[in-house]
Amino acid sequence: MAASSTAASSSPTAENRCDVIPNCHHVLNMKLTIHGLLDFLEVSENVTSLFMALEALWTWDMCRGLDIMYSPLINSRLKGIIKKRSWSLVPSNMLERFSFTSIRNVSSVLASCVKNTDACDCIFINGERMRITTFPIIMKRPTKLRFCFEHPSIKSCNLPGKCGFILQVVPGGSTFGKIRLCTKGEDYRHQKAAEFEVHFHEQIRAEKMHVFFCTGTLGNQSDMIIPISWLSSSCNTGQNTVPVGNSQLFTRKLGLQGSGYFTVMYEI
After folding, report:
1. Tens digits of residue pLDDT in 26-50
2. Are strands 90-91 and 114-115 parallel, antiparallel or unpaired?
3. What is the pTM of this model?
4. Packing angle, helices 72-85 and 50-64, rounded to 10
5. Which of 34, 42, 63, 263 is 20 to 30 A from 218, comparing alpha carbons?
C-alpha cells in the first residue's frame, strides 16, 4: 500500500496546520548593542532555534561592522540562553560555513553553540542549483522551489516521481518574502519540465524546517551559508535605510558570480 501523499492534504488535520516556514521574514533592530542583541535573543518568540539566533548575530554583524573580540561574558550569555530556551546545538561543521564580517576568533566566541557533527539530529536537504544573481529576484516573486526528500517514516512509496516537497515564496513587497510549504495536490500539478517531479507526503511538516541559502557547488561541505531569516530588517548604509536583502553589504556577501542553492535543515 502506498504511503499517504498530497491527496491526503485535504484532511482536517492538514488544513489546520501552519505551513509557513518559521525562520523566514523577520525583523531585527540593527541599533542594538551586542548585549542588547543577546537580551533580544533570550526572550523573542520569533527566535525559535539556536541556528536562527546565529543568523541574527550574522546579520547584525554584517550591518554593524563592529569588531567583537572574544569575551568570556558573551560565551557565558550564549550558554545561559541556550540552556534557558532548550535549544539544540549546531553541528560544528555548520558554524565554520558562516562568514562573519568582524567577529574575531568566532570559534572561541561561539564555543557554547556547537556539538560534534556525528551527533546531528537534522537532515540537510539541498534544492536545485541556480545562478547566485537569481537569489534576490526569487525572494521577491511567487517562486516554487523543489526538493527531493524521503521522510524517515515513509517505508514504501509507489507514487510516480520522487518523494519530496515544494516551497513557495510569498512576496513581501519591497522586502524579502515569507516561504510556505505546499501541502495541497494542486500545488504539485503542472511542474515545469525538469529531470524530475516530486510528490508530497503529509508527514512532512513546515515547523520542522529551517531554510537558508548556500553559495558554491551543490552539497559541498565548504559551501558558504547565507542566512535569510532577518533579511527584511532595516540596514543603514550611510546614505539611506534599506532592507538588508537589498543592501550593497548583502550583495557583496552573496557575490555576483557562480552558483548557489537553497537548503532545508529538517529536524528529525
Report:
1. 889 988 888 899 999 999 999 999 9
2. parallel
3. 0.85
4. 140
5. 63
